[in-house]
Write a structure and sequence with these properties.
It contains 5 helices and 10 strands, in the order βαββαβββαβββααβ. Strands 1, 2, 3, 4, 5, 6, 7, 8, 9 and 10 form a 10-stranded mixed sheet that branches. A hairpin with an 8-residue loop joins strand 2 and strand 3. Helix 3 packs antiparallel against helix 4.
């Protein structure tokens, strides 16, 4: 059996997230339809992803895999699919994968990047990719708060209500606030993430930067396990899945 691993990039603005949903435009559904056309299959070809990005979230390096019913050159799964896909979704690379490769279960880590436009005037060119934060931000305080989030912690205070993860303990290898304005980035690398975790971290760091939360309170917030103690949830459109890591710690992006 042939299993193909793809790395895909998409602008999530006009998608209702990754996962197939009846009657809605999703990344998974759009990709599956294009693959079925390419291989001339009337049956659904399931594409398994490394995660489920929410509506409005973007990706530079989403990893996914599927089993084509017929053998084609790997280049066909790049150029052929890109000829069929809409402008806001593209395949960056394709390669053969072991028959038992599972993009989600085999992943050993991910990097997310949250973008901010910190300026009094909004930027139309950045409107779909950056959260517009008008007031000044204390970057030193944000970096102090970010340092408290690195390492292994119970991140219950930074997850969405209704999150059904079996464990809320996660390890963050890096939480960095980059730039000096007006365009800023919050980059988070970890082994795994809870739902809305990165957006909750980004919103909390912005609240720290605006003086609403003291950076020294982050350990207390983590210990509380109370979502209400942390900051707001940042909007989806500022978030991008940058890369997924596997056993050899190499990035799986094109």
């Amino acid at each position: 059996m042939m299993r193909v691993r793809l790395v895909v990039e998409y602008d999530g603005s006009d998608f209702a997230g990754w996962q197939v949903q009846p009657g809605r435009r999703t990344v998974q559904g759009t990709l599956e339809a294009a693959i079925a056309r390419l291989v001339k299959s009337e049956r659904r070809i399931v594409v398994a992803g490394a995660g489920r990005t929410d509506a409005g979230v973007h990706a530079e390096g989403m990893v996914c895999a599927f089993d084509p019913p017929r053998v084609l050159p790997l280049t066909a799964f790049v150029h052929g699919l890109n000829a069929l896909l809409p402008e806001d979704l593209a395949v960056r690379s394709a390669e053969l994968a072991p028959p038992d490769f599972d993009p989600r279960r085999d992943a050993r880590g991910k990097t997310y990047r949250y973008r901010l436009w910190n300026h009094p005037v909004r930027s139309p060119l950045r409107a779909r990719r950056c959260w517009h934060v008008r007031g000044p931000l204390d970057l030193a305080a944000m970096r102090e708060a970010a340092a408290h989030l690195r390492g292994t912690h119970d991140f219950s205070a930074f997850r969405a209500q209704g999150c059904e993860a079996k464990t809320t303990v996660r390890t963050l290898r890096a939480v960095e606030v980059r730039g000096s304005g007006p365009e800023l980035e919050i980059e988070v690398e970890g082994t795994a993430f809870l739902r809305f975790m990165v957006r909750s971290i980004a919103g909390t760091l912005v609240d720290v930067g605006q003086g609403r939360i003291d950076p020294a309170r982050i350990p207390e917030i983590l210990a509380s396990g109370d979502r209400a103690q942390a900051g707001r949830t940042a909007p989806a459109h500022g978030l991008t899945l940058v890369a997924v890591y596997y056993g050899d710690r190499t990035k799986a992006h094109g």
